[in-house]
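User: I'm putting together notes for a lab meeting next week and I want to include a structural view of one of the chains we've been expressing. I don't have a solved structure, so I'd like a prediction I can at least talk through. The sequence is below, exactly as it appears in our construct file.
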Amino acid sequence: MNTIRTVAILAALGTLSACAIPADKGRDRGIDSKDLSQLQAGIWIDPNGCDHWIIDDGLEGYMDVRRDRYGKPVCSGAGAPNTVVGPFKSGSQFPDPR
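Assistant: Thanks for the context. Below is the predicted structure for the 98-residue chain, given as structure tokens.
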């Protein structure tokens, strides 16, 4: 009986924890925390030739598919496949050894 009660309580707590207010995804919470809009993005071109926004903050990294206003992926031809163009390591005071 105690096992069933414990499982029920844990399930209820797990369900309630899913209702928590989500963290602000627009902030860098690392050593030099700031709003992500202050970081410089570059573009990584995937093997298919489509663009992805990329930011390297030293310790953390961010990437997302670059889309047009209709939600379709952008394949601009800004560079060769599997390359990065732009200042994607700029905007952070945290040193990056590479």
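A couple of points you could mention at the meeting. The radius of gyration is 20 Å. The chain has one helix and six strands.

User: Perfect, that's what I needed.
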